[in-house]
């Protein structure tokens, strides 16, 4: 069964939820999450890397029906192989302004016929040594370009924060300069039809691992997974990858629905207003007693606190709390990126 709201109406979700622009009151685990909270990079201690040096000759080739990628590749080498591979310095090829505080950064892989080597879902870590600093700055990022069908480059979508140690450095970079990368960092191992229905709850740049999942599911004609996305931001301009999401939603209207929530919406905004609340999720997420569902959460610390509780470490998901626990979901039904 698709989300309960989809059964009730095929039109856009309309919400009249109180909005505010500062931090949500800290009263209980169900405190609504303010979509404008700043994201903080996950800790790097304890990350393990996937090891897989070459694509097997017997590995399936990308489907001719695959979409939302670029140039198709068959058997090819991988830039990131995990295991004992050290950091790889990649040259910045292009910087593209995305909106008022976000940019796209395209980095060249060591060889033009290489793919990144990432799996779904996985990420890379970046490293930068600030002048006169004792330790390097390390941050994880999920690239937005396809893992299988794109070769020669890696693309990051990065929101630049005034005091962001890594994002500020990226913002200062010009084509020709280099940044250190390592990966893949394994996250949630996806396989076609692993779950009947997944719900993705994201805030800000937390959309990137969600988009990685969405893209993998809907480019594979064998994967029939149903997907609901709940995505919170400050303003409409802050919604990242909106065109890509809309294109997929138009092509797969029976299997993919996106619900947007804004802290500062325009007057004609037809979706959610204010914050991602218990009432909103109750209308979108399948009943906790549904079989074979999964909920993914990614965003700023405030989102985790309100929706699911924080992770204990990169390897430990921690206990489930917040709105999802109050709605009756179990720890096994939730994954925190």
TrEMBL record:
FAD binds at residues 139-141, 157, 159, 167, 208. GO terms for biological process: ergosterol biosynthetic process. It is found in: Mitochondrion outer membrane. It is a single-pass membrane protein. Its main location: mitochondrion. Keywords: FAD, Flavoprotein, Membrane, Mitochondrion, Mitochondrion outer membrane, NAD, Oxidoreductase, Transmembrane, Transmembrane helix. One of its GO terms (molecular function) is cytochrome-b5 reductase activity, acting on NADH. Its EC number is 1.6.2.2. It holds the Pfam family NAD_binding_1. One of its GO terms (cellular component) is mitochondrial outer membrane. CDD domains: cyt_b5_reduct_like. It catalyses: 2 Fe(III)-[cytochrome b5] + NADH = 2 Fe(II)-[cytochrome b5] + NAD(+) + H(+). Residues 85-191 form the FAD-binding FR-type domain. It comes from the Eukaryota. PROSITE patterns: FAD_FR. Its cofactor is FAD. InterPro entries: CBR-like, Cbr1-like_FAD-bd_dom, FAD-bd_FR_type, Flavoprot_Pyr_Nucl_cyt_Rdtase, FNR_nucleotide-bd, OxRdtase_FAD/NAD-bd, Riboflavin_synthase-like_b-brl. Belongs to the flavoprotein pyridine nucleotide cytochrome reductase family. May mediate the reduction of outer membrane cytochrome b5. This is NADH-cytochrome b5 reductase.
């Amino acid at each position: 069964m698709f989300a309960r709201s989809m059964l009730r109406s095929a039109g856009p979700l309309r919400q009249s939820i109180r909005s505010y622009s500062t931090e949500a009151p800290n009263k209980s685990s169900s405190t609504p999450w303010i979509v404008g909270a700043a994201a903080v990079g996950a800790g790097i201690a304890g990350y393990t890397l996937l090891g897989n040096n070459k694509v097997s000759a017997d590995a399936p080739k990308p489907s001719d029906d695959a979409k939302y990628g670029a140039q198709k590749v068959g058997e090819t080498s991988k830039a990131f192989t995990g295991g004992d591979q050290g950091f790889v310095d990649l040259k910045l090829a292009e910087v593209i302004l995305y909106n008022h505080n976000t940019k796209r950064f395209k980095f060249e892989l060591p060889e033009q016929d290489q793919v990144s080597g990432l799996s779904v879902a996985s990420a890379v870590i970046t490293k930068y040594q600030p002048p006169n600093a004792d330790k390097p700055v390390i941050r994880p990022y999920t690239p937005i370009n396809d893992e299988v069908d794109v070769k020669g480059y890696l693309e990051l979508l990065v929101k630049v924060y005034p005091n962001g140690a890594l994002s500020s450095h990226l913002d200062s970079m010009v084509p020709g300069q280099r940044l250190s990368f390592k990966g893949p960092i394994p996250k949630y191992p996806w396989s076609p039809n692993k779950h009947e229905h997944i719900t993705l709850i994201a805030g800000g740049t937390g959309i990137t691992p969600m988009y990685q999942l969405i893209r993998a599911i809907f480019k594979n004609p064998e994967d029939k997974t149903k997907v609901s996305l709940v995505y919170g931001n400050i303003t409409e301009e802050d919604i990242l990858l909106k065109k890509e999401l809309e294109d997929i939603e138009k092509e797969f209207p029976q299997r993919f629905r996106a619900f947007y929530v804004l802290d500062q919406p325009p007057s004609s905004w037809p979706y959610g207003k204010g914050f991602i609340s218990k009432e909103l999720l109750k209308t979108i997420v399948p009943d906790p007693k549904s079989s074979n569902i999964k909920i993914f959460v990614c965003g700023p610390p405030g989102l985790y606190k309100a929706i699911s509780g924080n992770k204990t470490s990169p390897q430990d998901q921690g206990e489930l709390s917040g709105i999802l626990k109050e709605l009756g979901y179990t720890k096994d039904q939730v994954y925190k990126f």
